[in-house]
Amino acid sequence: MPSADLAALEQRLVRDPKLARKAQLVVGAAQEADLAALKALVAHGADLNASWRNYRPLHALIQEKPHAPDSAGRVDERRLAALDWLLSTATIPSSSAPGPACGPSSPRVERSATCGSSPP
User: Fold this and answer.
1) Residue 104 clears pLDDT 70, i.e. is over it
2) Domain boundaries along the sequence of the chain
3) What is the dihedral sign for C-alpha 45, 46, 50, 56?
4) Apex CA 117: angle with CA 114 and CA 120, to 5°?
């Protein structure tokens, strides 16, 4: 995101704190692999597990041009950086099935439907 756009986003988030919690914005930022926007949204309260049109930010990121190399055959480094950040930052549920609430003690990326269980 160009710095002018990021500054405008920051100003909008300060004026309207509820804006950060709009799922469409955080999913859209992930879809575009816009790490600066993702960080700004999260700093203002965005939920990295928010769902918009049945997509969460991680899903949007990996499904938008997931293996699209550039003309030299390289994968987009912005996508990899956004993926690394999302995986290190978000508690990502493995299932939408009802179950116990995931809390701060649950693993970052769960591999079972039960929050807090150890990955295999």
Assistant:
1) no
2) 3-89, 94-120
3) negative
4) 110
